Each structure stands twice: as structure tokens, then as C-alpha cells.
Amino acid sequence: MNTLLRDTRWVTALALVTLLFTAGVAQAANTAVEAEPRAKKKGWMERHEAMNARVKQGNVDLLFIGDSITHGWEGKGKETWDKFYSERNAVNLGIGGDRTQHVLWRLQNGNIEGISPKLAVVMIGTNNHKANSAEEISEGITAILRVLRNELPETRVLLLGIFPRADKPAEISEKLKKANSLIADLAADPMVRYLDIGTAFLDDAGNLPKTIMPDLLHPNEEGYKIWAEVIEPHVSELMSK
Fold first, then answer.
1. What is the pLDDT of residue 2?
2. So which residues are the catalytic ones?
């Protein structure tokens, strides 16, 4: 065989292998599904360990799992939490700033160990908006539900669509809406119910008012009241099954 021809074929084959390998790496590099802690974030590990200590006490019938919006039940949402959830043995597993990968790590490292709640309410993904596509965000949420279903097989899941936000450009909202449309399919599992309550926060013109979310992301007292009231029929039903 002509040496030049052989060398050309070798270079072509090598280039093809390199291309396939690169494509495979790119496809696998979805940070939304790569469980990791935020150990360098001040106070993060302490809150994680405090939540672990709480679940070790047992007597957990209801979980709320998420980021700062869920964490806020202990702030702006406290009065509503006390009204709706304090007598339901509810535990708040929300940490501000968390993305799907951080929730994954927490669930794999003590947050749900040794318990079997009646219901887990999950709302996560908005903080992935910058680093991940809608498809990747949905994969991260899917991974979270997979852990919950594997580790808590008797626990029902109320999966909430990512709440609307108006503090970012419109394309971010569209990305999150697309992610919501993808995770809706997770309700094919009879133990999972999907519910998008985003419109409950909007005004008659379809806008997100600052009277509900002052920073156009986090609910205030009225926002948490709306949240609890809208999901209450579902929480009551699912916890009674």
C-alpha cells in the first residue's frame, strides 16, 4: 500500500475516534446529575448536618426538598408553615443556592436515611439555569426522583414545576418552562404527581408581581400562603393514601 495513502487513512481514522470520544465526553458532562456538596460554602455543611440530625430523630411524615425558595419556609413562610405543616411532622430540606447536583448529594448522604415519609414535595432546578440546558435540568430532577423512589419506595412524591422568575432575561424563563414540560412525564410513575402552580403567582396580565415575589424570584409572606393553599388538596390527599 502506498505509504502516503496508508498514513492518510490512519490520520482519518484517528480523527474519527477523537471526534467520537469528544462527543461522548460532551454528552456525559451534565453537571446537573453529578452529585456534589457545596462544602466550601459557609454554613452549607452545617445546615446539611443539622437536617441529618433532625431526620435521625424520626417522626418524619412530610418532606419539602429544594433550594432557597424551600429554605424560605423558615423565613417569610414561617407563619404559613406553622399553620399547614407543623402538626404534620414536616421537615424542611431546602438550602439556599442549591442546584440539582447538590440535592442529589444531600439525599445520598443522610437527608433521607432511616425514614419513610408519607410524602415528599420537590421543587428544584431554578439555580441550574445558567450552567445547564432545559434537558440537563430535567435529567437532574429525574435523578433526584430516582433516588427518592429507590430509597423511599413507600413515599409518594409531589413534584412541583419550577416556579416562574422575572429577574432574568426572557430566555431563562423559557428554558425553565421547557424543563417543566419535560419533567411532567415523570408522573407516569403512579407514586409521583406533577403539579405546575406557576400561574397562581401571576397577575391577570400574566406577569409576576413584586407584591408576591419582591425580587421576582423568592415568595414573600403572601407568596408562601398562595403556595400552601394551592397544593393543600394534593398534600392532604397524598398523605392520606
1. 52
2. 68, 215, 218
